[in-house]
Amino acid sequence: MSAMQSSPRRRISALTKRAWLQQRSTALWLALIIGGISGVLAFVTAGGINGVTELSDLIPSVAAGMVSVRDANGELQTITSYMLLMMPVFLGVLVAMIATLTLPGIVADDVSGGGIEVLLASPIPRRSLFSAYLAAGLTLTAASWIVALVSFAVTATATATILGVSVTLTVPFIAALIVLSLSMGVWSAVATLFGALLYPGSQESKAGMNGGPIRLLALAPSLLTVPSVLFLAEWVLPALGGVLLLTVLATFLMIRLTARGFRSTRVLSS
Amino acid sequence: MSAHEHVVTAHASDLVVGYGDTAVLSSVNFELRRGVTALLGRNGGGKTTLMRTICGVIRALGGKCTVLGAQVADGAAVRSRVGYLGHESALASALTVQQNLEFWRDITSTYPGAILAPIAELVERFDLSPLLSKRVKSLSRGQQRRADLARLAMTDPEFVVLDEPLTGLDPVYAARTRELLRTWGETRTVLYSTHSVPEALELARDHLAVTGTSVVALGADVTESMILDVLESDR
Questions:
Q1: Which helix (H) or strand (E) holds A96?
Q2: Residues B223-232 pLDDT 10s
Q3: Quick check: A20 and B95 in contact, CB under 8 A?
Q4: What is the pLDDT at residue A211?
Q5: In chain B, which residues have their Cβ closer than 8 Å to the Cβ of A118?
Q6: Is B64 a residue whose pLDDT tops 90?
Q7: pLDDT score for B13
Q8: Among candidates A215, A217, A228, which has minimal Cα distance to A181?
Q9: Residue closest to B30 by CA, chosen among B198, B189, B182, B167
Q10: DSSP state string for B74-112
Q11: B-chain residues within 8 Å CB-CB of A21?
């Protein structure tokens, strides 16, 4: 009984381990580098622009106070605050991009070779097979999200310390940092798996769109989250709740669509 | 033929196979017994579709097919006793042979009632030692096929289905693979597809031919000209 119960976990573990070996940890390195660079860029890109007067009038969103950066004299660094404010969206887009770049690899070899035939001939029920692919994809996405977030936090803290600036974070900003990047990563992972399993031809490099529509589907929502922190600063928590709710609903819908459409005739050529 | 060899291990009645709403073969009737059976047919005739259906890779569009006394439904336990080797390699090209075998060991260990052959035993049996650390994409087709056969043998299946296992092999590997199929055929059912009539006559005891939209059971006492006559009628 215990062996039966642990079978799904062992399948997920096997698929995740294989994807990890195939990509040689590319997903995590990308997340580490991109998260780390983001933490530095948020503080250094402003340069001398922070000194321009009347900036706070030009960029009023910072005045909402979700996050603020001040120099050693207590002066508000408007552009740096603005850059930091945008980081939840920026990280969301990047985690989503990493998912679209790395997740097709989980099923690519199986579909282009004979692995999927052998798996479909096995006693593993089709739904369990799909669940194993999905769980492996989400595991890798969660790992890259954690690495990107931790890497961002470490380099941002280090850069702020070196530059001698103080950062005031609010709960809505931290919530945005977590919710936007995680939800966009999860959505992108599910949408990418949808394309890889239901439209495997879209993953091949050839003349035409080369998976463009699937990637667009995976990435577009992350770009649409910009208003949630930029223009809805006073309503950021409800806006984040809305983003999270929409992502969860859309993700479940996409999982159901993919599970229903995952048929051998989809992934096999006659 | 001994009584042991008379045991019917697979049975198809009025089977219809195909993809979606398109039937490739219809009214397919045959029985398979222990031993080697060759499946012959012209390019695009439906051999692969039939073998995929027998193994449950794709669903039958109609009729009935049983393997080892059970229907090969989605998730059926009988699938643990069936070994399938498709036309393409099931190995991940970017991984080494060792990593691939370990992956398939992890996957097949979740099959109900599976008793797995140790990887070390398979490596020795299929002469894979020199290949273990090599990436699959760097192997020749013959070498890949050996690793694929080791993967298949992992669960020691009673019913083995192989899609053109001898295609593209050099003479040495081809001879070894023929010997392997012959040995397997002594104790289990082996169904394999081929384009070589002389090889099928030499290796198989029974012969099935795909012609038109049906399958003809030619049995054991056939000649090359009889098989070619059947295949040539498929226009």
A1: helix A78-102
A2: 888 888 888 8
A3: no
A4: 57
A5: 84-86, 90, 151
A6: yes
A7: 93
A8: A228
A9: B189
A10: TT-GGGGGEEEE-SS--S-TTSBHHHHHHHHHHHHTTST
A11: 94-95, 99
Is there a contact between B84 and A264 if contact means CB atoms under 8 Å apart?
no
* Beta carbons of A123 and B99 less than 8 Å apart: no
Query: pLDDT value at position A2?
Result: 43
Do the Cβ atoms of B110 and A11 come within 8 Å? yes
Q: Are strands B62-67 and B35-41 parallel, antiparallel or unpaired?
A: unpaired
State both tokens at A54. 């009347």
pLDDT value at position A3? 46
0.95 surpassed by pTM? no
- Please list, in sequence order, all residues whose beta carbon lies within 8 angstroms of the beta carbon of residue B81, skipping any fewer than 6 positions away: B68, B155, B157, B158, B159
- What does the domain layout of chain A look like in residue ranges? 2-267
Q: Is B24 on the interface with A (CB under 8 A)?
A: yes
Sign of CA dihedral A4, A10, A15, A18: negative
pLDDT for A100: 84
Contact A259/B at CB under 8 A:
no
pLDDT band at B4 (very low <50, low <70, confident <90, very high): low
| CATH 3.30.930.10 is right for the domain spanning B3-232 | no
Q: Where are the beta strands (DSSP E) in chain B?
A: 8-19, 22-33, 35-41, 62-67, 70-71, 82-85, 159-162, 189-194, 206-211, 214-219
Nearest chain A residue (CA) to B76: A123
| A124 CB within 8 Å of a chain B CB | yes
Return the structure tokens found at A127.
């739904």
The reply to whether residue A17 touches residue B103, judged by beta carbons under 8 angstroms, is yes
Detail the DSSP E strand segments found in chain A: 67-70, 166-169
- Give Rg (Cα) of chain A: 21
Q: Please identify every stretch of chain A with a pLDDT value under 50, giving residue numbers as ranges.
A: 1-5, 63, 207-209, 270
Give ipTM to 2 decimals.
0.92
User: How many Å apart are CA A37 and CA A22, to the nearest integer?
Assistant: 25
CA B79 to chain centre: 13
Residue B113 tokens, joined = 């009632």
Probe site for chain A from B21, B48, B74 (most A CB atoms < 10 A): B74
Rounded to a whole number of angstroms, the distance from the CA of B161 to the nearest CA of chain A is 11
Q: How far is A138 from chain B (nearest CA, A)?
A: 19
A126-163 helix and A171-198 helix, angle to the nearest 10 degrees = 140
- For A56, the token pair is 């706070």
Give the Cα separation of A252 and A138 in Å (integer). Answer: 13
Report d(CA A196, CA A204) in Å as an integer: 10
